[in-house]
Amino acid sequence: MSRADKAAEILWSAWQSSRRMDALPEACRPRDLDEGYAVQAALGALAGRHFGWKIAATSAAGQRHIGVTAPLTGPLFERFALEGGARIAAGDLHMAVAEPEFAFRFARSIRPGDAHDREAVLAAVGKLHLAIEVPDSRFEDFARASAPQLVADAACARWFVLGREAKGWRGRDLAAVPVTIGDDAGTVHEGSGANALGDPRTALAWLVADRLDRGIAIEAGCVVTTGTCAAPLPIAPGRIVTARFGDLGRVAVVFV
Fold it and tell me: What fold is seen in the domain 49-255?
């Protein structure tokens, strides 16, 4: 068994049992980002189909939150994809936060070698959805786990709630759209699209370039979520969490 396969097996076992670890065993621990992404690919073979990609740590605050200095890319696994209004068990979530995000669905594929400047990427997008990511980590102290290990662990992916399509977004300055995420107890975190690498479209182009540089195509139908637009909101059982994106709409999730 390769180092990557062994690390993926350990991580997937932790995903399934909600077990936390201090670190992967040194014998299979990824030593750099390339090795981390090799583990991530092997993890995907165990977790099943993915329907898209996420970008983690698009803001300085987000990078500080998980102890990295640049964004990370991870898969969104189909088995953890939900629709707006879904119910999620909160008791086994370690990070225990929810994040409001813009998610783009591609109408056309972009493959390695294709033009992938921002305009070309946006031309391939068919729809914009409003979303809530509920990330998690299999590491006890994820802020000190190291970027290669976080990448191996799907860049802290777990649940993803895809809301309805937002209308009339193409002519909008998404960076200026006010975004809030709050719960029915009255806690609200405010932000804007600018928290996602300055503009969700910029974050989208960054992620596409990252995938293509690693030889991975963005297929038609793929969903790319572009990072939290507000500080992650702590969640707890019994709370209803709603993300609002100005006049573009809202999406909610119930934690049980």
Answer: Fumarylacetoacetate hydrolase; domain 2 (3.90.850)
